[in-house]
Automatic annotation (TrEMBL):
GO terms for biological process: endothelial cell migration. SUPFAM superfamilies: EF-hand. One of its GO terms (molecular function) is transition metal ion binding. The gene is LOC114450672. This is Protein S100-P-like. GO terms for cellular component: cytoplasm; extracellular exosome. It comes from Parambassis ranga (Indian glassy fish).
Length: 90
């Protein structure tokens, strides 16, 4: 596999690992999103000044308003974080 294909496979696996904890197997509920962020992107939550900011951020990922984060919404999170990291290094 190419590096990009490997990275995509890792994203699939990461999403599935957390989505399969409880509830629907192809969606992340609020608790699963929070656990994913705590374990996979700990610096993101540590930068939050209060728990309300974290809840607001998690809610902002739910574009279709179904109270869950599907894979495309998860990928939006990945894209946002990647852009933040990329542009902070320029």
């Amino acid at each position: 596999m190419s590096q990009l294909q490997n990275a995509i496979a890792i994203l699939f696996q990461t999403f599935n690992d957390y989505a399969r904890k409880e509830g629907k197997k192809d969606m992340l509920n609020k608790g699963e999103v929070k656990t994913l962020l705590e374990k996979e992107l700990p610096g993101l939550l540590q930068a939050a000044k209060n728990p309300g900011e974290v809840d607001k951020f998690i809610k902002s990922l739910d574009f279709n308003g179904d109270s869950e984060v599907d894979f495309s919404e998860f990928m939006e999170l990945v894209a946002r974080v990647a852009c933040i990291i990329h542009f902070s290094k320029i």
